[in-house]
Amino acid sequence: MDVIVGGGVVGLSAAWRLSRAGRAVTVVDPAPAMGASHAAAGMLAPVSEVAYTERPLLRLGAASLRRWPSFAAELAADAGLAPAGDPAEAARAGLDLRADGTLDVAFGADDLAALDELAAYMEKLALPVERLTGRECRRLEPMLAPSVRGGLLAPGDAWVDPRRVTAALLAALERRGVPLVRARAGELLRDGGTVVGVRLEPPGGPPEIRAERVVLAAGAWSAGLADVPVRPVKGQIMRLRSAEPLLGRCVRGTVHGAPVYLVPRGDGELVVGATQEELGFDTRVTAGGLYELLRDARELVPGVTELEVADVVAGLRPGTPDNVPIIGPSATPGLVLATGHHRGGVLLAPLTAAILLGEETELAGLCSPARFDDTGAPRPVTPGRAATAHMEEP
């Protein structure tokens, strides 16, 4: 039996796929679906989120995005969202999965210059993007401010509602009879040098659960159970609401050097996020954080100030030293890691499950736990297959 420690989108996806493959699975989490996944915006945007130093993450994200349509259709069916009809339409309706692209816009001259440099980098990688003038951006999204100077369209990027995804995963696991233990894992059980289960903190649940394998998917809390280089990165986010959608696609922008994104939902909700703060396990929502988000969002889409505030929340992303997740068997027998997804937990959930199942071997080395030394620092890359895997084009 496998015990999955962590009930976010990564842990629940792994449990669901393992169960479908015939494995006996138990999920342990004191508040399933209420951590970073609850705060996430749900962008499936490996192209528009590309960074100069994150080529491995781009490869992982692009591969996982290709898996999302089938992952969503199967999940919709297993969760009872698609008793009949088109599975893809059920995924769109039940999970709010859409693939209308991401528009990355620049507000000022300096922001536009930085965007032009990024566009050149994207073109060097042969990524599917289209440069747009400010007028062309406003033709696509009429609610953009007149001051928007230009942009990039990544037509293949998508997005989904993470809260609907985790709700569907919980429903699918319940329908499959997968036990969900609402308790906190206090420590790993060991027999000599092998992990053989977890000991739970009271109240609730049995005192311990024995397992052939423990999959640690506890996000920012993973380092409290095992020696993994994962830290919390705070992100504040807000949800606004209107009768009709304000935007038709995801809009990302840079305003005076500060990034902001706006993600529309089919029901009129608009997600605005997100801060990135190195403040440990602080989950307070602050006036300053929300002010910065609204200030920058208003510069790009002035109409946001007229919307109703539906929700504000702060989540803790699990960051790693190289921003790439840690997925695969650890150096400790019986312990498998699925953590450190930082900004990409929702995007990378299908690929993570595939790696844990052994269905994806080509890219597994990019996120192997073995890439870190005993201090948690990335090991030097040596020539050979593992090195070139980090440098290949996506």
Give your account of this protein's structure.
The chain is α/β, with parallel strands linked by helices and 394 residues long. It folds into 2 domains: 2-92 and 161-230 and 321-391, 3-Layer(bba) Sandwich (FAD/NAD(P)-binding domain), CATH 3.50.50.60; 102-155 and 231-319, D-Amino Acid Oxidase, subunit A, domain 2 (D-Amino Acid Oxidase, Chain A, domain 2, 2-Layer Sandwich), CATH 3.30.9. The chain is 30% helix and 26% strand. The protein contains 10 helices and 19 strands. It has helices at 9-20, 36-39, 55-78, 87-95, 109-124, 134-140, 162-175, 287-300, 345-357, 385-391, and strands at 2-5, 25-28, 43-44, 102-106, 130-133, 150-154, 158-159, 180-181, 184-191, 194-201, 208-210, 213-216, 231-241, 250-255, 258-264, 269-273, 308-319, 326-329, 335-339. The protein has an 8-stranded mixed β-sheet. Strands 8-2-1-12-19-18 form a 6-stranded mixed β-sheet, with helices on one face. Strand 14 and strand 15 (258-264) form a beta hairpin. Helix 3 crosses helix 7. The longest helix has 24 residues, at 55-78. The protein is globular. The two termini are 35 Å apart. Residues 381-394 have low confidence and may be disordered.
Helix and strand layout, with pairings?
Elements: E1 2-5, H1 9-20, E2 25-28, H2 36-39, E3 43-44, H3 55-78, H4 87-95, E4 102-106, H5 109-124, E5 130-133, H6 134-140, E6 150-154, E7 158-159, H7 162-175, E8 180-181, E9 184-191, E10 194-201, E11 208-210, E12 213-216, E13 231-241, E14 250-255, E15 258-264, E16 269-273, H8 287-300, E17 308-319, E18 326-329, E19 335-339, H9 345-357, H10 385-391
Helix pairs in contact: 1-7, 1-9, 3-4, 3-7, 3-9
